[in-house]
């Protein structure tokens, strides 16, 4: 693949291996390789560099098929062309257990704080041990107010309280942290739908963003997660966390292809600054590195 | 399901007899797809299928089975043989035995530490939990809360003391107070973070654990191999705990990890509550991986 030789039959299985090992998944891999093979035949691409280029273009095309609008991370500061939703910009963060929701919320809250926006976070994970304390530590570090009740409280009540408090004091951004939950658990997904209804009732048009956090080390199950969370609460964007490991996050392609959901952000570490807006070119390039 | 897909492959085979190469290869193409879709590592799939092929070609098909069933039976047996084996219990050898939990960020170590402590106490042991994660916000608080809920003591020295020191002191305290098992909850870390892996080596050096268990998420993809290999190389694993098996991830990572490190799978995490830890059954995971 790194060579500049002629295209051989071995090249196609080599590309297939590369994509599968990057967690792109079998059916997406087959679709991508067939597409490139057809193009190579049509355009008489005979060298490996040309094939590699064609594959990268096919992958970018797949990613850009997902509704890519400029990542909000690029416009945390409201402007005429990118006004913050009024009266309150509400972001709901969801995902399965341990993927990085709470840490990712801290990173986002930090971005909005640094842009001078009055940012509040709601500790709506009232189940897991020390989930509230974890968010409180982060809130302190980034200068965001944390709205919390006691462990075991109704998440809907915490969210209601947070919304009321934000509206009353005219806060600008509210980010809601929810408990990790497996998408296969009916009652937990129903709980999440209820939280979304509470939000919609209090602030018309909210939540303006529903961010699904996905762990980059996840395999094919990421697609099932994206499907189920989208069905339940209409995911508007993905935060791909833990991309600083060796996993390539290849299931992003299957998610783009099947659900059209854009990746908004990537998490690149455990510190508050370890976040970046999603850059499709860089993502595809890294997969081949 | 795999059996259904394979039925199509063998439609053309008339009667029973012996499994021929061409038929086996065609069947294994379907098996390969099933395993890759289950997140089994690419290379592990290749090696596994070579073994299956060697066993399958030339085998007599029992009159009670179709050729498709014969191949699935061999795949299933080989899968169970690979997944199972090895000591499936925690070996309680020292006094106290130190059990070290390691793994990537968010895999379920802290929750599993509490679950394990609870299980061991039910079995008559006297466990001590050790808060060795000084990095993650409120990690110590998380373990303290769990310990309090279960009425299991938690050893902590706050977040300013280096973890190897905390763990060494905890082991010493455990000996003095006659605890029988010491469970070290370490911070999640990347297998490629040299400093953090070195810290783990220091923890091991200072506590001589009887068990070093990799806590791995059932939804882990292709990288499971590299992660497990690196943890095994640096710290020396003695077992694997697969978590979040209560989801619908096929769990192929378990096969990959077992195949490359050879460490036995000891437990599976099947929920968020403290009683959600079960002994590992290779048959169940095998059929889940095959789909
Ligand atoms: N290396 C790395 N670690 C991360 C990243 N994001 C989060 N983590 C770590 O992943 C672990 C889990 O993060 P949390 O934020 O607690 O995850 P969560 O989704 O809120 O977990 P639950 O609330 O228990 O479902 C922590 O150790 C984080 O420091 C990332 O981008 N890179
Ligand atoms: N459904 C389910 N959730 C689990 C299981 N094991 C752990 N969890 C959840 O996974 C999330 C992460 O668990 P932790 O115990 O904080 O993970 P950790 O490995 O200690 O995380 P770090 O210390 O940040 O590396 C929490 O929400 C747990 O409740 C399991 O077997 N099933
Ligand atoms: Mg959380
Ligand atoms: Mg932990």
Concise structural overview:
The complex is a heterodimer of chains A (289) and B (291). Chain A has 289 residues and is an alpha/beta fold. Chain A has helices at 9-21, 26-42, 48-64, 101-114, 131-142, 155-169, 186-202, 221-233, 251-259, 280-288; strands at residues 89-94, 119-124, 145-147, 173-178, 209-215, 237-241, 263-267, 275-277.
Radius of gyration of chain A: 21 Å
How is the largest sheet of chain B built, in terms of strand order?
5-4-6-3-7-8-9-10
Distance between the termini of chain B: 6 Å
Tally of DSSP helical segments of chain B? 11
C-alpha termini separation of chain A: 11 Å
Strand order, sheet with most strands of chain A: 3-2-4-1-5-6-7-8
Structural class of chain B: alpha/beta
Order of helices and strands of chain B: HEHHEHEHEHEHEHEHEHEEH
Low-confidence parts of chain B: none
Strand content range of chain B: 15-25%
| Assembly of the depicted chains | heterodimer
Q: Largest interface, by Cβ-Cβ below 8 angstroms: which chains and how many residues each?
A: A-B, 42 and 45 residues
Tell the overall outline of chain A: elongated
Q: How many E-type strands of chain B?
A: 10
Bound molecules: guanosine-5'-triphosphate, magnesium ion
Helix share bin of chain A: 40-55%
What is the CA-atom radius of gyration of chain B, in angstroms? 22 Å
Q: Give the overall pLDDT of chain A as a whole number.
A: 94
């Amino acid at each position: 693949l790194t060579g500049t030789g002629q295209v051989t039959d071995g090249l196609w299985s080599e590309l297939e291996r590369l994509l599968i090992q990057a967690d792109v998944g079998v059916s997406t891999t087959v679709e991508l390789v067939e597409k490139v093979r057809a193009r190579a035949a049509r355009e008489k691409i005979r060298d490996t560099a040309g094939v590699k280029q064609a594959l990268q273009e096919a992958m970018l095309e797949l990613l850009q098929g997902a509704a890519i609008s400029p990542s909000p991370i690029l416009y945390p500061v409201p402007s005429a062309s990118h006004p913050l939703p009024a009266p309150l910009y509400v972001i709901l963060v969801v995902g399965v257990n341990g993927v990085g929701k709470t840490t990712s919320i801290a990173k986002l809250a930090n971005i909005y704080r640094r842009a001078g926006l009055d940012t509040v976070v709601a500790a709506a994970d009232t189940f897991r041990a020390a989930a509230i304390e974890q968010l409180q530590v982060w809130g302190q570090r980034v200068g965001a107010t944390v709205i919390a009740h006691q462990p075991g409280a109704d998440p809907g009540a915490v969210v209601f309280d947070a919304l009321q408090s934000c509206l009353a004091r005219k806060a600008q951004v509210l980010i809601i942290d929810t408990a990790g939950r497996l998408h296969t658990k009916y009652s937990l997904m129903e709980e999440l739908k209820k939280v979304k209804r509470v939000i919609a009732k209090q602030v018309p048009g909210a939540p303006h963003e529903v961010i699904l956090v996905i762990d980059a080390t996840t395999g094919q199950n990421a697609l099932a997660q994206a499907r189920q969370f989208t069905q339940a609460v209409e995911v508007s964007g993905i935060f791909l966390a833990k991309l600083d490991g060796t996993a390539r996050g290849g299931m992003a392609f299957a998610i783009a292809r099947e659900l059209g959901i854009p990746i908004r952000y990537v998490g690149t570490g455990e510190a508050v600054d370890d976040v970046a807006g999603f850059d499709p070119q860089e993502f595809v390039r890294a997969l081949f590195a | 399901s795999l059996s259904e897909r394979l039925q199509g492959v063998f439609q053309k085979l008339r009667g029973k007899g012996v499994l021929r190469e061409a038929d086996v290869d065609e069947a294994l193409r379907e098996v390969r797809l099933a395993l890759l879709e289950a997140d089994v590592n690419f290379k592990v799939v290749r090696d596994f299928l070579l073994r299956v092929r060697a066993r399958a070609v030339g085998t007599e098909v029992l009159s009670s089975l179709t050729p498709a069933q014969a191949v699935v039976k061999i795949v299933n047996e080989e899968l169970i043989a690979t997944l199972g084996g090895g000591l499936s219990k925690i070996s309680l050898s020292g006094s106290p035995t130190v059990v070290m939990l390691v793994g990537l960020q968010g895999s379920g170590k802290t929750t599993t530490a509490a679950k394990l402590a609870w299980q061991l106490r039910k079995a008559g042991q006297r466990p001590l939990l050790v808060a060795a994660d000084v990095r993650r916000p409120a990690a110590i608080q998380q373990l303290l809360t769990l310990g309090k809920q279960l009425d299991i003591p938690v050893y902590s020295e706050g977040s300013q003391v280096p973890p190897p020191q905390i763990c060494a002191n905890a082991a010493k305290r455990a000996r003095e107070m006659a605890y029988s098992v010491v469970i070290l909850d370490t911070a999640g870390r990347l297998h490629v973070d040299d400093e953090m892996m070195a810290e783990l080596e220091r923890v091991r050096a200072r506590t001589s654990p009887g068990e070093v268990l990799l806590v791995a998420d059932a939804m882990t993809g292709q990288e499971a191999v590299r992660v497990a290999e690196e943890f095994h190389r640096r710290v020396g694993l003695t077992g694997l705990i697969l978590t979040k098996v209560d989801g619908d991830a096929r769990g192929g990572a378990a096969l990959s990890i077992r195949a490359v490190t050879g460490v036995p799978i000891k437990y599976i995490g099947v929920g968020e509550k403290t009683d959600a830890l079960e002994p590992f059954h290779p048959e169940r995971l095998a059929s889940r991986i095959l789909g």
